[in-house]
Structure prediction request, 421 residues.
Amino acid sequence: MLRFCRGIRADAIIKVNERANSALLQKFRSLSGVASTTYNGPSYEETLKMRKEFVTPSAIPFYRKPLLIHKGEMQFLYDHKGVKYLDLFGGIVTVSVGHCHPKVNAALEEQIKTLWHTTAIYMHPKIYEYSEKLASKLPGDLKVVYLVNSGSEANDLAILLARLYTKNYDIITLKNAYHGGGTSTMGLTAQAPWYYPAPGIKNSIHHAMNPDPYTGIWGGKNCRDSPVQTKRNCDCTHGKCLAEDNYINQLESEFKYSLPRGKLAAMFAESIQGVGGTVQFPRNYLKRAAELVRQNGGLFVSDEVQTGFGRTGDHYWGFEGHEIIPDIVTMAKGIGNGFPLGAVVTTPKIAQVLTQAIHFNTFGGNPLACAVGNAVLDVIDEENLQQNALDVGSYLLKGFETLRDKYDIIGDVRGKVREFN
Prediction:
Protein backbone atom coordinates (compact mmCIF):
# COMPACT_ATOMS: atom_id res chain seq x y z
CA MET A 1 0.00 0.00 0.00
CA LEU A 2 1.18 3.53 -0.76
CA ARG A 3 0.94 5.85 2.22
CA PHE A 4 -0.11 8.83 0.16
CA CYS A 5 -0.72 11.26 3.01
CA ARG A 6 2.79 10.98 4.35
CA GLY A 7 4.99 14.01 3.98
CA ILE A 8 2.66 15.83 1.58
CA ARG A 9 -0.76 17.40 1.77
CA ALA A 10 -3.11 15.51 -0.52
CA ASP A 11 -6.69 16.44 0.34
CA ALA A 12 -8.38 14.32 -2.28
CA ILE A 13 -10.09 11.08 -3.13
CA ILE A 14 -9.38 10.18 -6.75
CA LYS A 15 -11.49 7.90 -8.92
CA VAL A 16 -9.35 5.07 -10.30
CA ASN A 17 -9.51 2.50 -13.05
CA GLU A 18 -10.56 -0.93 -11.79
CA ARG A 19 -8.62 -2.88 -14.41
CA ALA A 20 -5.31 -1.15 -13.63
CA ASN A 21 -5.33 -2.50 -10.09
CA SER A 22 -7.17 -5.80 -10.51
CA ALA A 23 -4.18 -7.93 -9.49
CA LEU A 24 -3.65 -5.96 -6.28
CA LEU A 25 -7.34 -6.09 -5.41
CA GLN A 26 -7.51 -9.81 -6.09
CA LYS A 27 -4.56 -10.37 -3.77
CA PHE A 28 -6.14 -8.28 -1.04
CA ARG A 29 -9.50 -10.01 -1.35
CA SER A 30 -7.83 -13.40 -1.06
CA LEU A 31 -6.23 -12.26 2.18
CA SER A 32 -9.20 -10.50 3.69
CA GLY A 33 -12.15 -12.48 2.42
CA VAL A 34 -13.70 -9.37 0.87
CA ALA A 35 -15.67 -10.55 -2.13
CA SER A 36 -18.22 -7.89 -2.98
CA THR A 37 -18.64 -4.12 -3.07
CA THR A 38 -22.44 -4.27 -3.32
CA TYR A 39 -24.15 -1.62 -1.20
CA ASN A 40 -27.30 -2.69 0.62
CA GLY A 41 -27.91 0.32 2.86
CA PRO A 42 -30.39 3.21 2.70
CA SER A 43 -30.57 5.20 -0.53
CA TYR A 44 -28.54 8.34 -1.09
CA GLU A 45 -31.64 10.49 -0.64
CA GLU A 46 -32.57 8.69 2.58
CA THR A 47 -29.10 9.23 4.05
CA LEU A 48 -29.30 12.95 3.23
CA LYS A 49 -32.67 13.14 4.99
CA MET A 50 -31.41 11.25 8.07
CA ARG A 51 -28.29 13.40 8.29
CA LYS A 52 -30.36 16.58 8.18
CA GLU A 53 -32.89 15.42 10.79
CA PHE A 54 -30.81 13.43 13.28
CA VAL A 55 -27.14 14.42 13.05
CA THR A 56 -25.67 17.59 14.54
CA PRO A 57 -25.77 20.43 11.97
CA SER A 58 -22.11 21.17 12.74
CA ALA A 59 -21.12 17.92 10.97
CA ILE A 60 -21.09 19.21 7.41
CA PRO A 61 -19.74 16.96 4.64
CA PHE A 62 -17.54 18.45 1.93
CA TYR A 63 -18.71 19.01 -1.65
CA ARG A 64 -22.05 20.12 -3.07
CA LYS A 65 -22.95 16.47 -3.49
CA PRO A 66 -21.03 14.59 -0.79
CA LEU A 67 -19.73 11.10 -1.42
CA LEU A 68 -21.56 8.28 0.32
CA ILE A 69 -18.72 5.91 1.18
CA HIS A 70 -19.63 2.46 2.41
CA LYS A 71 -16.50 0.34 2.09
CA GLY A 72 -12.72 0.47 2.10
CA GLU A 73 -9.98 -1.90 0.91
CA MET A 74 -6.43 -0.79 1.70
CA GLN A 75 -5.88 2.41 -0.34
CA PHE A 76 -9.27 2.20 -2.06
CA LEU A 77 -12.75 3.43 -1.13
CA TYR A 78 -16.13 2.59 -2.69
CA ASP A 79 -19.26 4.70 -2.83
CA HIS A 80 -22.85 3.47 -2.80
CA LYS A 81 -22.83 3.09 -6.60
CA GLY A 82 -19.75 0.88 -6.52
CA VAL A 83 -17.47 3.59 -7.94
CA LYS A 84 -13.92 3.05 -6.77
CA TYR A 85 -11.64 5.84 -5.50
CA LEU A 86 -7.98 6.09 -4.60
CA ASP A 87 -7.92 7.57 -1.09
CA LEU A 88 -5.27 10.28 -0.81
CA PHE A 89 -6.67 11.72 2.41
CA GLY A 90 -6.78 8.68 4.67
CA GLY A 91 -9.71 9.87 6.77
CA ILE A 92 -7.91 13.15 7.63
CA VAL A 93 -4.50 11.50 7.90
CA THR A 94 -5.85 8.70 10.08
CA VAL A 95 -5.87 5.47 8.03
CA SER A 96 -2.15 4.82 8.35
CA VAL A 97 -1.77 1.24 7.10
CA GLY A 98 -4.77 0.85 4.80
CA HIS A 99 -8.53 0.47 5.10
CA CYS A 100 -9.44 -2.88 6.66
CA HIS A 101 -5.84 -4.12 6.67
CA PRO A 102 -5.99 -7.93 7.02
CA LYS A 103 -3.58 -8.09 9.97
CA VAL A 104 -5.31 -5.29 11.88
CA ASN A 105 -8.73 -6.79 11.13
CA ALA A 106 -7.56 -10.18 12.39
CA ALA A 107 -6.18 -8.71 15.62
CA LEU A 108 -9.45 -6.90 16.31
CA GLU A 109 -11.55 -9.95 15.48
CA GLU A 110 -9.52 -12.16 17.79
CA GLN A 111 -9.83 -9.67 20.65
CA ILE A 112 -13.57 -9.19 20.08
CA LYS A 113 -14.03 -12.91 20.71
CA THR A 114 -12.01 -12.75 23.94
CA LEU A 115 -12.63 -9.52 25.88
CA TRP A 116 -14.17 -6.22 24.88
CA HIS A 117 -13.92 -4.08 27.97
CA THR A 118 -12.80 -3.98 31.55
CA THR A 119 -11.74 -1.02 33.67
CA ALA A 120 -8.55 0.35 35.16
CA ILE A 121 -9.38 -1.30 38.50
CA TYR A 122 -8.62 -4.68 36.91
CA MET A 123 -5.62 -5.74 34.88
CA HIS A 124 -5.62 -7.03 31.33
CA PRO A 125 -2.43 -7.85 29.43
CA LYS A 126 -3.14 -5.95 26.21
CA ILE A 127 -2.69 -2.51 27.73
CA TYR A 128 0.70 -3.44 29.21
CA GLU A 129 1.94 -5.19 26.07
CA TYR A 130 0.91 -2.29 23.88
CA SER A 131 2.25 0.43 26.19
CA GLU A 132 5.63 -1.30 26.32
CA LYS A 133 5.79 -1.59 22.52
CA LEU A 134 4.70 2.03 21.99
CA ALA A 135 7.19 3.35 24.55
CA SER A 136 9.98 1.45 22.81
CA LYS A 137 9.45 3.65 19.75
CA LEU A 138 10.25 6.85 21.66
CA PRO A 139 13.66 8.26 22.60
CA GLY A 140 15.14 9.25 25.93
CA ASP A 141 13.07 9.00 29.08
CA LEU A 142 9.69 9.13 27.29
CA LYS A 143 8.52 5.83 28.75
CA VAL A 144 5.20 6.37 30.56
CA VAL A 145 2.07 5.92 28.42
CA TYR A 146 -1.44 7.17 29.16
CA LEU A 147 -4.00 5.88 26.64
CA VAL A 148 -7.04 7.92 25.63
CA ASN A 149 -9.46 7.96 22.68
CA SER A 150 -8.56 11.00 20.57
CA GLY A 151 -6.06 13.76 19.94
CA SER A 152 -8.20 16.34 21.70
CA GLU A 153 -8.27 14.15 24.81
CA ALA A 154 -4.50 13.67 24.58
CA ASN A 155 -3.79 17.39 24.38
CA ASP A 156 -6.27 18.12 27.16
CA LEU A 157 -4.36 15.73 29.43
CA ALA A 158 -1.05 17.27 28.36
CA ILE A 159 -2.32 20.68 29.50
CA LEU A 160 -3.14 19.23 32.91
CA LEU A 161 0.23 17.47 33.20
CA ALA A 162 2.20 20.60 32.29
CA ARG A 163 0.33 22.86 34.69
CA LEU A 164 0.54 20.40 37.57
CA TYR A 165 4.22 19.64 37.04
CA THR A 166 5.49 23.19 36.57
CA LYS A 167 2.95 24.79 38.93
CA ASN A 168 2.64 27.45 36.24
CA TYR A 169 -0.44 28.26 34.21
CA ASP A 170 0.41 30.13 30.99
CA ILE A 171 0.79 28.21 27.72
CA ILE A 172 2.09 29.22 24.30
CA THR A 173 1.05 27.82 20.94
CA LEU A 174 1.59 29.10 17.41
CA LYS A 175 -0.90 30.98 15.31
CA ASN A 176 -2.41 28.73 12.61
CA ALA A 177 -1.99 25.69 14.91
CA TYR A 178 -4.62 23.04 15.45
CA HIS A 179 -4.59 21.02 18.67
CA GLY A 180 -8.22 19.98 19.07
CA GLY A 181 -11.74 21.28 19.44
CA GLY A 182 -12.60 20.53 23.07
CA THR A 183 -13.27 23.23 25.64
CA SER A 184 -9.63 23.37 26.71
CA THR A 185 -7.91 22.41 23.46
CA MET A 186 -9.91 24.96 21.48
CA GLY A 187 -7.77 27.56 23.19
CA LEU A 188 -4.60 25.85 22.02
CA THR A 189 -5.93 25.95 18.47
CA ALA A 190 -5.29 29.27 16.76
CA GLN A 191 -7.64 29.33 13.79
CA ALA A 192 -10.77 31.48 13.88
CA PRO A 193 -13.13 28.98 12.17
CA TRP A 194 -12.68 26.60 15.12
CA TYR A 195 -13.62 29.13 17.81
CA TYR A 196 -16.97 29.40 19.55
CA PRO A 197 -17.87 32.66 21.34
CA ALA A 198 -17.70 31.08 24.78
CA PRO A 199 -15.98 32.54 27.87
CA GLY A 200 -12.72 31.07 29.13
CA ILE A 201 -11.62 29.49 25.86
CA LYS A 202 -8.21 31.19 25.80
CA ASN A 203 -7.65 30.55 29.52
CA SER A 204 -4.09 32.01 29.77
CA ILE A 205 -3.10 30.61 26.39
CA HIS A 206 -0.99 32.85 24.16
CA HIS A 207 -0.51 32.52 20.40
CA ALA A 208 2.92 33.43 19.03
CA MET A 209 3.62 34.48 15.45
CA ASN A 210 3.59 31.52 13.09
CA PRO A 211 7.02 31.00 11.47
CA ASP A 212 5.72 30.28 7.97
CA PRO A 213 8.38 30.80 5.26
CA TYR A 214 5.68 31.03 2.56
CA THR A 215 2.95 33.32 3.94
CA GLY A 216 4.76 34.81 6.93
CA ILE A 217 6.52 38.15 7.21
CA TRP A 218 9.90 36.50 6.69
CA GLY A 219 11.00 33.49 4.72
CA GLY A 220 12.16 32.34 1.35
CA LYS A 221 13.98 29.78 -0.69
CA ASN A 222 16.60 28.77 1.90
CA CYS A 223 14.47 28.34 5.02
CA ARG A 224 12.76 24.95 5.10
CA ASP A 225 14.26 21.54 5.81
CA SER A 226 12.88 20.14 2.58
CA PRO A 227 14.03 19.41 -0.96
CA VAL A 228 11.30 21.81 -2.13
CA GLN A 229 11.52 25.44 -1.03
CA THR A 230 9.25 28.41 -1.57
CA LYS A 231 9.87 30.62 -4.60
CA ARG A 232 10.03 33.75 -2.43
CA ASN A 233 13.23 35.72 -2.52
CA CYS A 234 14.95 36.44 0.77
CA ASP A 235 18.30 37.51 2.19
CA CYS A 236 19.01 34.09 3.68
CA THR A 237 22.02 32.13 2.50
CA HIS A 238 22.38 28.37 2.20
CA GLY A 239 22.70 27.01 5.75
CA LYS A 240 21.81 30.31 7.42
CA CYS A 241 18.14 31.30 7.76
CA LEU A 242 17.59 34.90 8.81
CA ALA A 243 13.85 34.23 9.00
CA GLU A 244 14.54 31.73 11.77
CA ASP A 245 16.28 34.45 13.81
CA ASN A 246 13.44 36.91 13.23
CA TYR A 247 10.72 34.45 14.25
CA ILE A 248 12.67 33.44 17.36
CA ASN A 249 12.93 37.12 18.26
CA GLN A 250 9.14 37.34 17.97
CA LEU A 251 8.78 34.34 20.26
CA GLU A 252 11.15 35.96 22.76
CA SER A 253 8.95 39.05 22.72
CA GLU A 254 6.06 36.91 23.97
CA PHE A 255 8.12 36.01 27.03
CA LYS A 256 9.15 39.64 27.46
CA TYR A 257 5.73 41.27 27.18
CA SER A 258 2.95 38.70 27.59
CA LEU A 259 4.01 36.17 30.21
CA PRO A 260 5.04 36.15 33.86
CA ARG A 261 8.83 36.01 33.75
CA GLY A 262 10.06 32.43 34.09
CA LYS A 263 6.54 31.13 34.77
CA LEU A 264 5.56 29.24 31.62
CA ALA A 265 3.71 25.93 31.89
CA ALA A 266 4.27 24.68 28.35
CA MET A 267 4.56 25.32 24.67
CA PHE A 268 2.55 23.10 22.32
CA ALA A 269 3.70 22.71 18.72
CA GLU A 270 3.04 20.43 15.79
CA SER A 271 6.22 19.25 14.10
CA ILE A 272 4.57 20.26 10.83
CA GLN A 273 1.26 22.09 11.03
CA GLY A 274 -1.41 19.78 9.66
CA VAL A 275 -4.86 21.41 9.56
CA GLY A 276 -3.11 24.73 8.97
CA GLY A 277 -1.85 23.55 5.59
CA THR A 278 1.22 21.33 6.04
CA VAL A 279 3.28 24.32 7.17
CA GLN A 280 6.96 23.67 7.77
CA PHE A 281 8.98 25.97 9.97
CA PRO A 282 12.44 27.42 9.30
CA ARG A 283 15.30 25.09 10.18
CA ASN A 284 16.14 25.00 13.90
CA TYR A 285 13.10 27.10 14.90
CA LEU A 286 11.51 24.44 17.10
CA LYS A 287 14.88 23.44 18.55
CA ARG A 288 15.55 27.00 19.67
CA ALA A 289 11.92 27.45 20.77
CA ALA A 290 12.20 24.39 23.05
CA GLU A 291 15.33 25.88 24.62
CA LEU A 292 13.51 29.16 25.30
CA VAL A 293 10.55 27.31 26.80
CA ARG A 294 12.72 25.38 29.25
CA GLN A 295 14.67 28.50 30.18
CA ASN A 296 11.34 30.00 31.22
CA GLY A 297 10.25 27.08 33.38
CA GLY A 298 8.01 25.35 30.86
CA LEU A 299 7.68 21.94 29.22
CA PHE A 300 7.79 21.39 25.48
CA VAL A 301 4.83 19.37 24.19
CA SER A 302 5.08 17.84 20.73
CA ASP A 303 1.74 17.23 19.04
CA GLU A 304 2.44 14.20 16.81
CA VAL A 305 -1.20 13.51 15.94
CA GLN A 306 -0.53 14.05 12.23
CA THR A 307 3.25 13.67 11.96
CA GLY A 308 3.92 10.55 14.02
CA PHE A 309 4.39 6.88 13.11
CA GLY A 310 6.79 7.34 10.21
CA ARG A 311 4.56 9.71 8.31
CA THR A 312 7.35 12.15 7.42
CA GLY A 313 9.47 9.33 6.03
CA ASP A 314 12.87 10.36 7.33
CA HIS A 315 11.97 9.85 11.01
CA TYR A 316 9.45 7.86 13.03
CA TRP A 317 8.43 11.01 14.91
CA GLY A 318 8.22 14.48 13.44
CA PHE A 319 10.07 16.06 16.37
CA GLU A 320 13.15 13.98 15.56
CA GLY A 321 13.53 16.06 12.40
CA HIS A 322 13.95 19.10 14.65
CA GLU A 323 16.62 17.40 16.78
CA ILE A 324 14.66 17.70 20.01
CA ILE A 325 13.28 15.35 22.65
CA PRO A 326 10.01 16.77 24.02
CA ASP A 327 8.88 16.52 27.62
CA ILE A 328 5.44 15.28 26.55
CA VAL A 329 4.29 13.74 23.25
CA THR A 330 0.64 13.53 22.22
CA MET A 331 -0.59 11.23 19.45
CA ALA A 332 -3.79 9.92 17.86
CA LYS A 333 -5.21 9.43 14.32
CA GLY A 334 -2.73 7.05 12.62
CA ILE A 335 -2.00 5.33 15.93
CA GLY A 336 -5.19 3.26 15.50
CA ASN A 337 -5.71 3.26 11.71
CA GLY A 338 -9.19 4.70 12.26
CA PHE A 339 -10.00 2.97 15.55
CA PRO A 340 -10.62 5.43 18.44
CA LEU A 341 -7.20 5.58 20.12
CA GLY A 342 -4.87 8.28 21.37
CA ALA A 343 -1.96 8.50 23.76
CA VAL A 344 0.12 10.79 25.90
CA VAL A 345 3.71 9.72 26.51
CA THR A 346 5.92 11.47 29.03
CA THR A 347 8.66 10.86 31.57
CA PRO A 348 8.17 8.98 34.85
CA LYS A 349 8.86 12.17 36.81
CA ILE A 350 6.22 14.21 35.02
CA ALA A 351 3.69 11.35 35.04
CA GLN A 352 3.94 11.14 38.81
CA VAL A 353 1.94 14.37 39.25
CA LEU A 354 -1.27 12.58 38.27
CA THR A 355 -1.10 10.62 41.53
CA GLN A 356 -2.20 13.77 43.38
CA ALA A 357 -5.82 12.79 42.67
CA ILE A 358 -7.84 10.06 40.92
CA HIS A 359 -7.54 10.27 37.15
CA PHE A 360 -8.60 7.56 34.72
CA ASN A 361 -10.26 7.19 31.35
CA THR A 362 -13.17 4.74 31.01
CA PHE A 363 -12.36 3.58 27.49
CA GLY A 364 -8.72 4.60 27.24
CA GLY A 365 -6.53 1.53 26.89
CA ASN A 366 -9.43 -0.88 26.39
CA PRO A 367 -8.52 -4.35 25.07
CA LEU A 368 -9.91 -3.73 21.58
CA ALA A 369 -8.00 -0.48 21.05
CA CYS A 370 -4.77 -1.97 22.38
CA ALA A 371 -5.05 -4.98 20.08
CA VAL A 372 -5.54 -2.68 17.10
CA GLY A 373 -2.73 -0.33 18.13
CA ASN A 374 -0.35 -3.24 18.59
CA ALA A 375 -1.14 -4.61 15.12
CA VAL A 376 -0.69 -1.17 13.54
CA LEU A 377 2.82 -0.88 14.98
CA ASP A 378 3.64 -4.33 13.60
CA VAL A 379 2.37 -3.51 10.11
CA ILE A 380 4.35 -0.25 9.94
CA ASP A 381 7.51 -2.21 10.70
CA GLU A 382 6.80 -5.40 8.75
CA GLU A 383 5.74 -3.61 5.57
CA ASN A 384 8.48 -0.98 5.88
CA LEU A 385 5.92 1.79 5.55
CA GLN A 386 8.19 4.52 6.88
CA GLN A 387 10.61 3.86 4.02
CA ASN A 388 7.68 3.71 1.63
CA ALA A 389 6.53 7.13 2.84
CA LEU A 390 10.03 8.43 2.22
CA ASP A 391 10.28 7.00 -1.29
CA VAL A 392 6.77 7.79 -2.48
CA GLY A 393 6.64 11.15 -0.72
CA SER A 394 9.95 12.21 -2.26
CA TYR A 395 8.81 11.22 -5.73
CA LEU A 396 5.47 12.99 -5.45
CA LEU A 397 6.94 16.10 -3.85
CA LYS A 398 9.44 16.62 -6.64
CA GLY A 399 6.74 15.91 -9.21
CA PHE A 400 4.45 18.50 -7.63
CA GLU A 401 7.33 20.97 -7.65
CA THR A 402 7.54 20.55 -11.42
CA LEU A 403 3.82 21.30 -11.69
CA ARG A 404 4.19 24.35 -9.46
CA ASP A 405 6.92 25.73 -11.69
CA LYS A 406 4.67 25.19 -14.70
CA TYR A 407 1.34 26.50 -13.40
CA ASP A 408 0.94 29.85 -11.64
CA ILE A 409 -2.18 28.65 -9.84
CA ILE A 410 0.02 26.45 -7.61
CA GLY A 411 1.62 28.71 -5.03
CA ASP A 412 3.61 26.30 -2.90
CA VAL A 413 4.51 22.62 -2.50
CA ARG A 414 5.27 21.39 1.01
CA GLY A 415 6.58 18.21 2.54
CA LYS A 416 9.24 16.73 4.78
CA VAL A 417 11.20 14.12 2.86
CA ARG A 418 14.69 13.60 1.50
CA GLU A 419 16.33 14.90 -1.63
CA PHE A 420 15.23 12.85 -4.64
CA ASN A 421 17.89 11.48 -6.98
